[in-house]
Design brief:
It is a single chain. The protein has one helix and four strands, in the order E-E-H-E-E. It has a four-stranded antiparallel sheet, covered by helices on one side. The termini are far apart.
Length: 87
């Protein structure tokens, strides 16, 4: 049985990169606007509105055309989710 011995190992050191700001990670999530009320369709945020009435109006339009979807308005301050139903 033949044995082999390793010759001396070499260690490589990389020069340190200059400090740069780390970019934001790329994700598929799209940040909603800064409004208090968020329009959610099937639990996915589709828009952000400053008033509940504006979010509800947009939600009713979606619910009217696609009644099978779950449409809700989420209040970011009170942490309440209100589901929109057709009359």
């Amino acid at each position: 049985m033949a044995t082999t011995t390793r010759q001396g190992t070499k260690t490589m050191t990389m020069a340190s990169a200059p400090e740069e700001s780390v970019p934001e990670p790329v994700t598929q999530r799209k940040q909603a606007g800064s409004g208090r009320f968020r329009l959610q369709v099937d639990r996915q945020t589709k828009g952000s509105y400053a008033t509940y009435e504006a979010a509800e109006t947009a939600g009713r339009g979606i619910k009217k055309h696609y009644p099978i979807l779950q449409v809700a308005v989420y209040d970011d301050v009170e942490r309440v989710n209100k589901i929109i139903e057709l009359p």
